[in-house]
Amino acid sequence: MESFFNNTFATLIAYIGIIFTYLLVIPLLLFYWMNNRWNIMGKFERLGIYGLVFLFFPGLILFSPFLNLRLKGSGKG
Predict the structure, then answer these.
(1) Do the beta carbons of residue 63 and residue 26 sit within 8 Å?
(2) Is 75 a member of any domain?
(3) Does the residue 10 lie in any domain?
(4) Which of 3, 4, 17, 71 is 20 to 30 A from residue 37's alpha carbon, by CA?
(5) Helices 26-37 and 43-55 sit at what angle, rounded to 10 degrees?
(6) Residue 1 above 90 pLDDT?
(7) Which regions span the lipid bilayer?
(8) pLDDT tens by residue, 19-34
(9) d(Cα 41, Cα 47) in Å, to the nearest integer?
(10) Range scoring the smallest mean pLDDT among 2-6, 35-39, 50-54, 60-64
């Protein structure tokens, strides 16, 4: 079991998992959360979301050309 933890392959897999989570999974969850709750968030929830946006900014930048958070208007004009 000790040789598994000293293995370079296991370390590489761990890094890939962390990077995948940091750059892809959590930013997509943040986009989904903000898109669904933007108009009904409380002040502490909004403060927490702003903190998470600051923390996961690199991943959000990766998705920003493809996703947007434009509010849906009345459709007139």
Answers:
(1) no
(2) no
(3) no
(4) 17
(5) 150
(6) no
(7) 12-32, 47-67
(8) 999 999 999 999 999 9
(9) 10
(10) 2-6
Number of domains in the chain: 1
Residue 36, domain member (yes or no) = yes
Q: Which residues of 37-76 are buried (b: 16+ CB within 10 A; e: fewer)?
A: eeeeeeeeeeeebeebeeebeebbeeeeeeeeeeeeeeee
Structural domain boundaries enclosing 59:
26-65
Rounded to two decimals, the pTM is: 0.77
d(CA 55, CA 68): 19
Distance in angstroms (rounded) separating the CA atoms of residues 53 and 46: 10
At 5, is the secondary structure helix, strand, or coil?
Answer: helix
- Residue indicated by tokens 């968030």: 41
Residue showing tokens 């986009």: 31
